[in-house]
Amino acid sequence: MKEVVNCVCGHVNPHGTILCESCGRVLDETQKDSKMIDMRYEGSARRSQTYNKSIIDKIWNFFSSVKVGVSLIVILLIASSVGTIFPQEQYIPPTELPEVFYEKEYGFSGKLYYLLGFHNLYSSWWYLICIAMLGTSLLIASIDRVVPLYRSLKKQKVSRHDGFLKKQRIFGITKTDQQDIEFAELKKILESRRYKIKEENGNLLAEKGRFARWGPYVNHAGLIIVLIAGMLRFLPGMYVDEVLWLREGETKGIPGTDGRYALKNNQFKVEIYDKKNKEDQTFNAAIDKVGTIVKNYQADVTLYEKEGNTLPGEEAKFKKVKDHSIKVNNPLKHDHYALYQVDFKLDELSEMSFNLMNKNTKETFGMITISLDDPKTMYKLKDGYSVELLSYFPDFEFDENQEPVTKSPIPNNPAFIFNMKTPDKPEGEVSFVAIQQTLEPLGENTYKMAFAGVDTRNVTALTVRKDLTLWIFFLGGAIFMIGVIQGAYWNHRRIWIQRKDGEIWLAGHTNKNWHGLKRDISMTLEGTNIDEPEDQLEPKNLGELEK
Amino acid sequence: MDKKQRRLIMRTSILVLLGAALVFSLYANFTKEKVAAVQKGEMARDFVLTDMDGNTHKLSDYKGQGVFLNFWGTWCKPCEYEMPYMDKQYQKYKDQGVQILAVNVGESNYSVKKFVEKHYLTFPIMIDKNKQVQTAYKIDPLPVTFLIDKNGKIIDKLTGSLSEESIQKHMERIKP
């Protein structure tokens, strides 16, 4: 294989060059007979097309191919859209098993969806590999094109070979004996149209908007930055997405902060629009139509930071950082963390009160209040009366042996076994008390625990977010857009004007928007004696070319 | 160095770099749940908790002994099932340098006390009130047992209820 191609003009081109980087002569034998030349990448040698020896070159060339890149995009597009047909695994109800849920909910197609792994598509190995391959393709294809393109645009000469000019899409010859005057005139007009003029041996090259050629590569750089940002999320400490359930009055460590921050829920409230409220009366019609309309979900919290280093479980000193009212779209932000209001539970039981009562006389002997988080064993009442708590079931049910048990430690359905000691029953009477249910397992009692009231509290759920990669996503997105704009709103236009004994040759090329280039040329030539060049791809000229 | 060689080196290094990025992403993606959990082979994180009798237990004080670290809740049936077995083995192994620490995941003193009385448990039981220890050990679901050897390394993580026989085997594994 030849390493270089020598052009007649004396320029040494890299192997695989189609058009001489310097004079524009057609070097590729297969293109010599075509009527028009292929101006893609300036006819420069894309390295990928030329070296194909080692395995590294073969891999390189595979990724350099535009066909491969487009295929990857198509595969990813189709896969990504299939992934939206049914919900992803993380969005199905948390109590459902995915292997059952998809079939139950969507039938056979749901089962297939699950079996093919589409329920967890966006983190499946093959999807990630496709994304990585697309990233590789973007990078390699760009390197392979931008380097030679930059080289040839930088090296381009003003004077071009006849063949190069003739085979441009816009081309025309004018016979004139006033070349000098025409040239001076043309130069002035082109300059006023903001073309950059280069002169050499009395020939002209007018060029404008070359930077539009870099648009696609800027755009690719933006995409690669976005992919890198996605990758950085895997690094520890870069990305946190957790949920924190917090009862009123409760203080808990914030997950994802490794015990550094704790949060206290002072109050959680849901406010609704109220017709009695003056400022809400604007919405009366809507309230009548819909009923209850929520105005605000709000958790009043206090953020604490741990002082010093303590072990988990060790008593730690916390200092208050700040108070904040977390509302929807108004998170608590601190140290890159943000806490968003995401869910709630109203009126969870916190305390229950009972009166010790004589069933017959309805006489009461004092009230006990049981904290459902921290019940006591013994509740003393006045002279000789006391209540012992024998058992407590926060989330009561009967198990398969008809024994009372608790399903969870959350007081959803509390039940108690009391031993009521009174002067006339010093041994006590046992009573099982659940919500709207009283059992006397050891025979008829004289006394009972009469329900006297409850205290409730609200629970808020907050999303804990930290994302140090967000700005990189934005940066990548901005660069992407700059690339798009650069390539879309500017065109790289060139006009070559050369003198050949008694004639002026004019050729033009643009990477897009040929109409704009033709308009530029025709306005430039207005008032001069030079004929407007022809568009060799126009139907009437195509016929001539055929001949 | 000639041009061809330079190109080969250039291409190879770019491809290696991209390959490494791919391997990293795949690895990170598939271990993201595991990374979230504490794994065997890691050093056990130190903690301090007070048991029901008011004694303070610091994990690192048990260096040189094996520690059978169990996380449990009173409502959790499988936890309840293994507790009496743990107690039997505790009686057998406590003089052979194996300690059992049973961490309740933060229930009321009342519930834990009643539970201990019901099962006559003798090993140290501590309540992780502010859930710092279970957060550090990323506990979910219950029961979970960590076998910690005399050097403070987690040699195994056991989920689900254990039979008496398997508890005995595990005690042997961490016996110094």
From TrEMBL, chain A:
GO terms for biological process: cytochrome complex assembly. Residues 66-521 form the ResB-like domain. It is found in: Membrane. Keywords: Cytochrome c-type biogenesis, Membrane, Transmembrane, Transmembrane helix. It comes from the Bacteria. The keyword Transmembrane helix applies. Pfam families: ResB (PF05140). This is Cytochrome C biogenesis protein.
Automatic annotation (TrEMBL), chain B:
PROSITE patterns: THIOREDOXIN_2. CDD domains: TlpA_like_family. It is found in: Cell envelope. Its main location: other. Gene3D superfamilies: Glutaredoxin. PANTHER family: THIOL:DISULFIDE INTERCHANGE PROTEIN DSBE (PTHR42852). One of its GO terms (biological process) is cytochrome complex assembly. This is Thiol-disulfide oxidoreductase. GO terms for molecular function: antioxidant activity; oxidoreductase activity. One of its GO terms (cellular component) is cell envelope. Residues 38-176 form the Thioredoxin domain. It comes from the Bacteria. Keywords: Cytochrome c-type biogenesis, Disulfide bond, Redox-active center, Signal-anchor, Transmembrane. Pfam families: AhpC-TSA.
